[in-house]
Amino acid sequence: MRTRRGAALISAATAGVLLSACTAGGGSNSGAAAAFDPNQQLTLTVYSNFADRELGVLNKALDGFRAKYPNIKVNSQGNQDDDKITQSIRSGNPPDVAISFATDNIGQFCSSKAWQDLKPHLDRDKLDLNQIPQAVRDYTSYQGTRCAMPMLADVNGLYYNKDLFAQAGITAAPKNMTELFEDAKKLTQRNPDGSIKTIGFIPQIGFYANHPQIWAPQFGAKWVDGNGKSDLATDPGWQELFTFQKKLVDFYGWENLQKFTAGLGQEYSADHGFNKGQVAMMFDGEYRTAFINNDAPKLNYGTAPSPVADDRANLYGGGYTTGTIVGIPKGAKNSAAGWELVKYLSTDTGALVQLANGLNNVPSTKDALHSPDLKLPPQFKTFLDIFDNPNLASNPASPNGGAYIKTVEDFANSWQSGKVTDLKGELAKVDKTIDDAKALGGN
Known about the structure:
Its main location: other. This protein has 18 helices and eleven strands.
């Protein structure tokens, strides 16, 4: 049920620690992989940001590793975010294995060598990375360095209220943006004064799960060109995305939209607007199924792949993904045994299925994805199918984390509120801001 909303922008504290991490702590990040002795008695320390029930789910999965290697004890410590992980690296006392929700930090983890290069282990063990979708391989490596492996994934799609659909005479989820727009109009109900009572679809970037990286795959929008430079102004997908998004905003009226969303429940509260029947359609991740099961179990809803641009029908069925990552910090005392645990959490089908069932996230290998032992609600299958689609996409890693996403979202706030009229010209300014920041970040 955990999400990665808070991982969109690497914190200043984390960035500073990571930049200096390559000069702190012991151990080596290169050369041959250290030999693993399963008979050696030792304790592996694992840091993760899991807490409460979810930490219990992780610990149950770790029981399988303990059973496989009875000489190894595992000290699992929850509530350890990326700042705490990187501070431990800087102090020279890191955990043996680190689990992070912040995939946007992968560029810093790999480029600073704060997380060890896993290539020696992968080469020695001849691990088949084709078990992992390309988009997932991309967000666990940076510029050819793989310093992390995936451990579960989040996948975004469309949620829709079946009862509201039936009342509006709509029989199927929209597959393209024209259908989304027309359905949103039919599903929207207004009060006598023209204010919004029930909204068909919230187009407001920055609200709930509406973020640029989640919209981009539906328009085939590319973040960078062949030289790694920001490409928003020249890639037609971005202009089409923002033009469509503003069309929906204008249909509702910016002031009306702001007033309506201000009155909705918080994103992770029981009175979320979708739970209450105030929102008919929305983009969100697979983890929302667990929230709905807990907070609104009687809600009659369906899920589908997110609709795509009208001229990009070939993209339908794919979507945006990100996920949990696991690696070995620089200076880890037991890197050989640590790798065995990383490998277990990222490739063992039984462990991944167990974690997926307990956390309501998508398992990150093809074998686990198709396991008959997955026990998830019917609406969850949509996200398994999206993850298995060749059009699955993520956003590129950057040396300064998700700062570029924040830059685009800041622009979107000006655009949707009517403060920007020259779309292409302003996107060119966004490109320059992103490229300048990346250069300062050590790209």
